[in-house]
Amino acid sequence: MKVKGLWVPVVTPFENDELDMVSYEKLVNHYINEGVHGLMPLGTTGETPTLSEKEYEEIVSKTMEVVNGRVPVIIGLGGNCTRSVVDKLKVVEKHKVQGILSVSPYYNRPDQRGIYEHFKKISESTDLDIVLYNIPYRTGRNMENETILRLSEEKNIVGVKDASGDFNKTIELLLNKPDEFSVLSGEDNLFYSSLLLGGDGGVTASAHLKTKEFIKVYDYIQNNDAKAALEIWKEISPMIPLLFKEPNPTPIKYMLKKIGLINSDEVRLPLVPISEELKNELDSNIVLQ
User: Fold this and answer.
1) Cα–Cα distances in Å, from 260 out to 58, 255, 283?
2) What are the BP-aspect GO terms (predicted)?
3) Structural domains present in the chain
4) In this predicted model, what pLDDT tens digit does every residue of 86-109 receive, in sequence order?
5) Per the residue annotation, which of 4, 26, 88, 161 is the catalytic one?
């Protein structure tokens, strides 16, 4: 099944430094009921680097239990040690997820050959679908379009979450991608523009809020009504910079607590809760029904 539409990279709720599974179940049910096309927990927005191995598997298990086949699930699983990523595949494979979202190796900054071999090894080690994640401002190394397109030839590398930060590069990728290879916007503020150029959807942290409006933007563009999509985009896009004004997902968690979807806006160090200044700004500028 092609990866397309609006996917929410679900936050991981904490309370008293423990996983808050009651809130997590509420979140999963809420976004399915809102009409999202899929869920991608345990990514950056899910604060995965702060989770223990036990907590990671608890989230995978709870996700699949609550989703119960209603929408596809792609789990964040990446790292800068290829062998460790391959070993961890066993955790997600036994829970029958559709696939993994795997970030380009960070910190050790491999060249394009190393990036290619890293993902080729992962591809050869599983039958799960693999969505590449290119986010060079976090990883320190950009995945060139040539590398992405070369990897798209692998049997189970089905798409890329594109957060390259270079829209010219994104345009080039969209114009040259294979038909069955998905390019999903990972830059929330480019969701509308990417769809207009043939993008397949987005993995959009901002869509934790005003979810139905994000889905309407996608649906209108699929129905060749860019004008109607633009009118909705004008309404929702101003909130996006505010939700990234301090480190993600701290502003989103503040808003989710405010509207009662999670019990606490707690994050784990090295993240800290948002400032009082940003709280005031969010309260003044984001109106949620």
Assistant:
1) 23, 9, 14
2) diaminopimelate biosynthetic process; lysine biosynthetic process via diaminopimelate
3) 5-236 (3.20.20.70)
4) 999 999 999 989 999 999 999 999
5) 161
Q: How far apart are CA 161 and CA 36, in angstroms?
A: 17
Annotated active-site residue 161? The verdict is yes
User: Is residue 264 packed enough to be buried (19+ CB in 10 Å), middle (13-18) or exposed (0-12)?
Assistant: middle
pLDDT tens, residue by residue, 268-287: 999 999 999 999 999 999 98
Is 169 one of the catalytic residues?
A: no
The answer on whether 183 is annotated among ligand-binding residues is no
Residues 5/37, Cβ–Cβ less than 8 Å:
yes
Amino acid in position 135: I
Span 169-192, pLDDT tens digits: 999 999 999 999 999 999 999 999
Determine whether the annotation assigns residue 44 to a binding site: no
CA 17 – CA 238 distance, rounded (Å): 32
Q: Report the distance separating Cα 235 and Cα 227, nearest Å.
A: 13
Classify residue 281 as exposed, middle or buried by CB count within 10 Å of its CB (0-12, 13-18, 19+): middle
pLDDT at 289 over 70: no
Catalytic site residue from 31, 56, 133, 218: 133
Q: Which of 122, 120, 176 is nearest to 145 (CA)?
A: 176
Token reading at 183: 């390019």
Q: Does the pLDDT at position 215 exceed 80? A: yes
3-state SS, 103-138, equals ECCCCCCCCHHHHHHHHHHHHHCCCCEEEEEECHHH
> Do 27 and 34 form a contact (C-beta atoms < 8 A)?
no
Look at the block and give the residue holding tokens 């401002």: 137
